[in-house]
Amino acid sequence: MAKNMETLIEKIRENMQVIYRRALDADDKLAQLNKQGKGKFQQVFADDAGFEAKSKRFMPYVEELGKDVLALEQVEDQQQAEQQLAKVVSKMEQLFSTLSHFQESLK
Q1: DSSP state for residue 1 in the 8-state scheme
Q2: For a 10 Å CB count at each end of the chain, is N or C smaller?
Q3: Could you tell me the mean pLDDT of each successive run of 10 residues in the chain, 107 residues long?
Q4: CA distances from 98 to 9, 22, 83 (A)
């Protein structure tokens, strides 16, 4: 694996930790809202968002992203690595954005 790809994967891992912590907090808030009879939605992301997971909580999406990151780490072919990287980055952006919007909506 090229040095720049190793550096990129390390940054992705750091961002995964941030997403993981934010998702845990968000899922706790969603559970509280659900107990109050709020948060009546079917899933966090729309069907066309690029996720296979379908959940009312963030953690299944984070787990899916984690699997994609592991797959990225194991890809040898440059073209496949670029495709996998694009998928990982897209999902990370969506998670960061949605988690941020969710946190803002709670204020």
Answers
A1: -
A2: C
A3: 84 97 95 82 88 95 97 90 94 96 88
A4: 22, 10, 23
